[in-house]
Amino acid sequence: CNYCKEPGHWKNDCPKKKNQKPTAVTVQESTSSSDNELVLSIVDNHQQSADQWVLDSGCSYHMCPNRSWFLTYEERLGGRVFMGNDMPCKTVGIGTIQLRMHDGVIRTLTEVRHVPDLKKNLISVGVLDSKGFKCNVKNGVMEIKRGSTVVMRGFKKGNLYMLQGSTSSISESVSVAEKNIPDLTYLWHMRLGHMSERGMMILSRQQLLGNHTVKELRFCEHCVFGKQHRIKFPKAQHSTKSTLDYIHSDCWGPSQVPSLGGGRYFLSIIDDYSRMTWIFITKHKNQAFKCFKEWKILMEKQISKRVKRLRTDNGLEFCSKEFNDFCKAEGIARQYTVRNTPQQNGVAERMNKTLLERARCLLSNAGLSRSFWAEAISTTCYLINRSPSTVIDCKTPIEVWSNKPANYSLLRVFGCNAYYHVNEGKLEPRSKKGLFMGYGDGVKGYRI
Known about the structure:
The protein is an alpha/beta fold. It folds into three domains: 15-174, no CATH class; 220-410, Nucleotidyltransferase, domain 5 (2-Layer Sandwich), CATH 3.30.420; 418-447, no CATH class.
């Protein structure tokens, strides 16, 4: 100082000249050994906007007095910061605050201390330096850089460097945060075998998708390839009173491409009351009777009820002598459709259409050849039984059938990479890579 010849200030700031106590920026060391006691520089007494932030090289942490600015917050009582005049201020919490910078980019300050008695918002240059940022000061401009990118900029005002930017509002921060949250809607769409958006919303409201909120489903080309059609069959009315009262069945095929097991047909069996569906892959149509007979015995033993009515078309696989004799012996009433009128067996026909549509989606999504159609059909049937249906009050078939909700935690995307354990020798790899092909029947495992 050219006035009092003492170090630490300029002539214009000389306290003897102004007859006042000094207000220079100083750092006071804490005399306590507590980890919760911090060091803070005292800034000058010039009035600043409450929204302005000071780039301070003298404070130990980022600090802010305004609780409403914190995007995330955790109470931490007992901490203290010391001003340059040894006056302590309490810290009551820690959290994150988002700032809109000079370039419009919103950046997040982490580990910001909440100090209600503080008069300024402080950004610690020391903390930024410890995190790998570089600080350049030249011609009254302070720039904080990460590599060659300027992430913060401050201009000198008096003896302080004020951040060129402002605090981002909570609503703006939440909006930005929501944009940064990955949208898992399309992933669940694939996991659920290209289920409709409405069905996914029903599962989401029941909190069955891991607390994920289903958003608007974006365009899915695989659904176009698999589900596009010209006309709908009219909806059938649901009027049965119990499971196995009324059964629909139909046989589809032959497939132009045989499955990996040589199958060219599949038999679908649908319970009218629950809409529970079973499929059987067969090599020949005449195997339909054998599959139905085995299914009937198993189901009646499982739920202690009997099949009462069976509706099919007039195909030879359903009108054979052995099939008719079996139904008469078991007391099953037969209902047939009029020739060339598939609409009269609408439940089974629509189910076959849905199975094929979603199976095509799975094959397209996985990039697999048509020889995997049986695996895709089986997986689709498994997922349809766990998909909400409007004819049963938006419940799932397996829930109506078994009185237990479906479990979605083990679902995987059809055709995704899968690693399975092997034990071929002490020096051989312990796993091999394959493709997920669906869900095991009667076992707790996946088909690979």
